Amino acid sequence: MRKYLVILILFSTFGSTVLSNPSPAEKYYKSATAYHDLGEFEQAISEYRKAIALDPNSPIIYNRLGIAYSELKQYDAALDAYQKAIDLSSMTAEPHYNIGVVYLKKGDFPLAAEAFKRAIAVDAEWGDPYTGLGEVYLKQGNFERATLAYKEASRLNPKDAGAILGLSKVSLKQGRLDEAITAIENVIEIQVDNTEAHYQLAQIYVKRGETEKAAAAMAFFKVLSQTDPLLEKAEMWVKRHPNDARGYNNLGIVYLARHRFKGAIANYKHAISLAPDLATAHYNLGHAYHKQGKVKLAIAAYQQALDVDTELAIAHNNIAVCYTELKVDLDKALFHARTAVRLAPTEGNYWDTLAQICDALGLENEAQRAREKQEEYSGNNEMPLFMLLSSSL
């Protein structure tokens, strides 16, 4: 966040007429920023260069140009742009920090450390360069200095997941497993879907011989690693297609898989606001509520899905499950369970739901038949709609 705040503040170097009467350079910069935000870095670079041709003395544009080059892994060009930004404004911390990031990616740790230290010299209250410096020291095996740098970063920004994760890595390297777990738990509290944190957690549980916890952590790590590329793709899709309901639905799907429940619910609701007849979005909203234990809200959302598509078997099944969990309206549960197996007669899970409801209602014969069907189709478990991404991504 700090990085972009600096950019917004420095943008005043363009003058006070940015909004009322933008210059040609400002127009190109605005266009470049729009491309940049959409991940279209080559187009952004072209527009940044047009802005530079008209305003060659703006450190902001050079810095942003460097970031765009870095995103494309054109590191030499990025370093050149950052250096030009520094030449124009040496007392701005961000270009120094960005140079450190590039050298860190290139594996040149001494030069990375020098750049991070220069950033700190310019702005000692900005946490990111300390995190970068901690990463350098960690890779060099200097655990004492790494710890000091990470601690200073987390002092300046207690929500810096990278710094806290760095502290967990140092603890793990030194065999202090309890401290490592505490740090990782703090990271997960800040960022529930931090992929690296869950991998580290799994490794620690393996070292401690806690096989069940290790398996659970590794299972979620695999979900995160598989959805990492989908996350970036889905987030970029809605930026490029802000009126596409299915795009928001898909982003909600990815968020839900990664346990970002609030974000998932917000995106499902936005999808519904754009397309009230999108049954899958209503269903997915119900599933998100269901995962959180908000069963009554889940029932309402599942019912909205059925109002749009009366033959959505999975919604019928899940409403039946909800009523069963609440131990109320078992007659309604029975209706929906029967409807689910009628619509999807080879779905083993639906027969299992029906069997449980029949047992609760004392319908022994129907329960027995449902269990037989469940065993017959036990390998045919329908993939839930919340795990199905549309082809729009």
Automatic annotation (TrEMBL):
Keywords: Glycosyltransferase, Repeat, Signal, TPR repeat, Transferase
Entry annotated with the keyword DNA damage: no
PANTHER family: TETRATRICOPEPTIDE REPEAT PROTEIN 6 (PTHR44858), UDP-N-ACETYLGLUCOSAMINE--PEPTIDE N-ACETYLGLUCOSAMINYLTRANSFERASE SPINDLY-RELATED (PTHR44858:SF1)
Keyword Transferase: yes
Pfam families: TPR_1 (PF00515), TPR_11 (PF13414), TPR_19 (PF14559)
Signal peptide, first to last residue: 1-20
Name used for this protein in its record: UDP-N-acetylglucosamine--peptide N-acetylglucosaminyltransferase 110 kDa subunit
GO MF annotations in UniProt: glycosyltransferase activity
Native source organism of the sequence: Geodia barretti (Barrett's horny sponge)
Stretches forming TPR repeats: 25-58, 59-92, 93-126, 127-160, 245-278, 279-312
